[in-house]
Structure to design on (330 residues):
């Protein structure tokens, strides 16, 4: 038994199997990966393996992209039974532990701790200064592990699910605001919005730097190809306050158009403009309803955007669980 670095792309299907089978919680089904999630993970990593020659070219042309998927597996008797996936947030010194999982029958044996230590050592070796992760509130063993490694709580995010229905509110943009479409390549508007509205206690662990959002030229060129191969579609809007022209909301969705009905909303909204919350949800849900009434819409909202949380509850969105956002600063 041993911890070893990823062998890519050979490990990708095996990593998918570990993730799919690790995130199953019979004692709390809402925590478990749903059927659509399992299909999406399997398909995404399978397609990533086919696209690996293109990925290698992008690494050669832009070396910083090499840090987009790093990690380790725990191998025992020729079988992968645990994994940790980490990646660097843009060109910053902050890293995200995107996923860590151990097969249920191998838990409580110290494997997750060894994987975490391997990941943290790699981050330090690559001069990282921060590492962040999300953990489901109530997952006491995982929370205890992260705390023992020095991680601290710095925020909460609420995970919701809802299905498209008829309009919940009047589908009219409130007076004093203007709306426009946003290019999927436009990183500056999101950067400017988050730089202005992110609370200091969050920014301490998730610094809002240009280098976190800026997309390398090769990534811009390849993004349409990746979206096409993955069968994905992205859509965004910007809403500005007419009085001063400032961006106050960026919202949109990501939809997998093949083999799944899952849709993900991404909403960033200035808490000082709560009147926009009903319109944002109504507009996005209406757009999804036009595409597929059978869609399952999921979204996460940080606790520091209370207007969005209140509106999500009013429209009957199911609060599946909450994430504890935890971070470690070296």
């Amino acid at each position: 038994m041993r911890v070893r670095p990823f062998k890519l792309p050979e490990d990708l299907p095996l990593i998918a199997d570990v993730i799919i089978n690790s995130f199953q919680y019979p004692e709390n089904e809402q925590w478990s990966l749903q059927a659509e999630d399992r299909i999406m993970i399997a398909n995404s990593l399978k397609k990533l393996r086919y696209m690996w020659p293109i990925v290698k070219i992008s690494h050669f042309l832009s070396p910083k992209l090499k840090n987009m998927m790093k990690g380790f597996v725990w191998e025992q008797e020729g079988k992968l039974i645990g994994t940790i996936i980490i990646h660097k947030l843009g060109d910053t010194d902050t890293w995200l532990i995107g996923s860590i999982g151990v097969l249920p029958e191998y838990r409580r044996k110290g494997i997750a701790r060894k994987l975490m230590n391997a990941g943290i050592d790699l981050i330090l070796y690559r001069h990282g200064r921060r590492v962040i992760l999300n953990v489901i509130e109530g997952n006491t063993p995982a929370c205890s592990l992260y705390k023992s490694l020095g991680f601290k709580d710095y925020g909460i995010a609420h995970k919701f699910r809802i299905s498209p229905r008829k309009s919940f509110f009047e589908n009219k943009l409130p007076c004093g605001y203007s709306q426009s479409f946003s290019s999927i390549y436009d990183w500056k508007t999101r950067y400017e919005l988050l730089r202005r509205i992110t609370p200091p206690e969050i920014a301490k662990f998730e610094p809002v730097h240009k280098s976190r959002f800026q997309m390398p030229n090769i990534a811009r060129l390849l993004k349409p190809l990746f979206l096409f191969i993955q069968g994905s579609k992205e859509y965004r809007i910007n809403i500005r306050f007419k009085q001063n022209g400032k961006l106050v909301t960026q919202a949109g969705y990501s939809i997998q158009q093949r083999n799944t009905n899952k849709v993900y909303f991404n909403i960033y909204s200035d808490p000082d403009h709560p009147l926009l919350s009903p319109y944002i949800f109504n507009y996005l849900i209406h757009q999804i309803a036009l595409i597929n009434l059978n869609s399952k819409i999921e979204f996460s909202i940080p606790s520091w955007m209370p207007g969005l949380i209140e509106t999500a509850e009013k429209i009957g969105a199911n609060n599946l669980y909450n994430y504890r956002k935890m971070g470690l600063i070296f």
In short: The mean pLDDT is 92. The radius of gyration is 20 Å. Residues 12 and 45 are 6 Å apart (CA to CA).
